[in-house]
Amino acid sequence: MGVVGILYLTTYLKTPFLDIFSPFFKISSSTFEFITDNLSYLKSKKDLEEENKLLKKQVQILNLEKIKARQLEVENEALKKALNFVGEKQLKDFVIAKVIAFSPDNWINSIILNVGEKDGVKEGDLVIQDGYLIGILWKVGKYSSFILTVADKDFKITARTRKTGEIVYYQGYNQYYGILKYARPEQDIRISDIIETAGMNETSLNGIPIGIIRDISLEEGRFFKEIKIRHFFNPYKLDYLIVLKNKEIR
Fold first, then answer.
1. What is the pLDDT of residue 15?
2. 3-state secondary structure of 138
3. Are 128 and 94 in contact (CB under 8 A)?
4. Which CATH architecture has domain 93-250?
5. Which PANTHER family match (predicted)?
6. Domain parsing of the chain, residue ranges
7. Other Cβ atoms closer than 10 A to 183
């Protein structure tokens, strides 16, 4: 058999061979493509998951930064109000304090500040927020102090009516109201008048608003009027406070 014959025979045998195994070649090729595609998919999925985790972390960081920024805005606003009051009253002997805790057994009436003896404050110093009296320093430690608020029944202070200048005696009663004690029938005390601090030698400690008169009554046979005061103290909105040093107790 010549060379031509051999080539012819080889070609002849190759053709059916390819015809027989062609489906297997196609299957192998398809399987390879399937595996390759799935590996690519798994890799893409993993990349997406990693990207998702990274994006979530970035969102959390941004949210925390927003919260911190908002807290700073609130603190700055509170400090501005405190300093405005200091400027208006031309106060010289005061301390800016921050609320750090509430007493667990009486959280509305007893508030803890971050100032103490080291800051020169003493028991009896007045505590102010937004221009209103909210209490006095009750217990003073080296680094912190308790406030006795105007809402507490143990809180008592000499005061006066702003419009008529009548001297009265304010006492705390509850979370919303206080009362005026020993108000005589002949005293000119009116509903909606402001009750403010009075009777102190130091001018800057007088005229600080405590609350507003909401109700007046006089029962037959009673020696004194019953007067209800809506105090300005808001226990749910406390941050930075002013402690006015009372020279009368020094």
1. 52
2. strand
3. no
4. Beta Barrel (2.40)
5. CELL SHAPE-DETERMINING PROTEIN MREC
6. 1-90, 93-250
7. 21
Give the position of tokens 């308790």. Answer: 146
Residue 111 to residue 82: CA distance in whole angstroms = 18
pLDDT in tens, 162-199: 999 999 999 999 989 999 999 999 999 999 999 999 97
Residue 137 to residue 41: CA distance in whole angstroms: 68
User: What is the pLDDT, as a whole number, of residue 42?
Assistant: 61
Rg (CA), the chain: 40
Phi, psi at 109, each rounded to 5°: -95, -15
Strand residue runs (E) in the chain: 94-102, 110-113, 126-129, 132-140, 145-149, 156-161, 167-172, 177-183, 194-197, 209-217, 225-231, 240-244
Residue-level length of the chain: 250
**Which structure tokens are listed for 10?**
């080889």
